[in-house]
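Shipment paperwork, digital attachment
Item: protein structure file
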Amino acid sequence: MEVDERKYVFVCGLHRSGTSVLGRNVARFEDCTGFKNTGATEDEGQFLQDIYPVAAKLGGPGRFGFDARAHRTEKSDLLTPKNMRRLHESWHAHWDSSKRICIEKTPANILMTRFLQKAFPNSYFVVIRRHPVAVSIATQRFWRINRMALHRLLYHWLHCHDVFAEDRPHLKRVYELTYEDYVGNPPRYHSEIAAFIGTHVRQELEGGHLRNVVHPASQKVSQVWEKGLEEVSSVHNEKYLKQWSKLLETPPWKGYYRYIGRKYEKRFNQYGYSLLESLDNPDKPMKRVDRMLGPVYCSGANAYTLAWRLAAQAKRRLTFSNAAVGKSAGLRNKHGAEARMEA
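Attachment content:
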């Protein structure tokens, strides 16, 4: 099959938005192929190429969007004929050449849709959006080594989705959905996405074998079925929203959480989300004293998370250092034993 006859489907959405499970499920559709068993984190395409920097080099989850280099368009200097050819070759080395529809999933795709459309003209974009509270709290939990204050994570959510909203009119083929709708009715959205990219959902939902998936942050390996579609649930979303509701009501930091909630509420309303729906008076204007104390709260949160990051990074360096010393001592003992045996 000629490369030009293929379709390229890019799954986009911020970290912890459901891109991984959605991307793997779409790759299980008829005549579709995705990356698997690559050894890279979540089998993401960003790690299988050397044309553009990976998100970790731009600050990582919850931060990468603030780096101007993360937003790539068809005007990017990286889009030379040589680089586009190399990008195709890098990814096609991992796609099944017998399949017609190629799936790639990387969270940072949300800021490089126009870049990818230029590099892969026959491209389709599936963009998933999840409640900002769930995304932000989950990001804090999973990437502790790079922990950010919650108000910065919420602002990062807004920034990235605002940039995508500006890029969207430039895209030819886009399908958007929310994580909340997806977990509520997976069959419906699988069918709609399959129709959007020109295929259908395979009927064999069980069988096959297990394959490994390397998770971000922890780098732990879990296994997923090769053929069967993965189940999704609203349990995790509910957990994070309950945690947020508790933060809004619990001293001594509830002033901080209510401040950022009222500060960003209208902007999140534009995307169909609310930060204050659990309050009895969500429309209550922010008090003057809260407006004054709000920046102080945020500065305190920034200082706290900075101290957390420094401590976590120091601990990791110490762990690596001890591991290196232990390995070196082990090698010395081994060589010493071998020398004694030869003697």
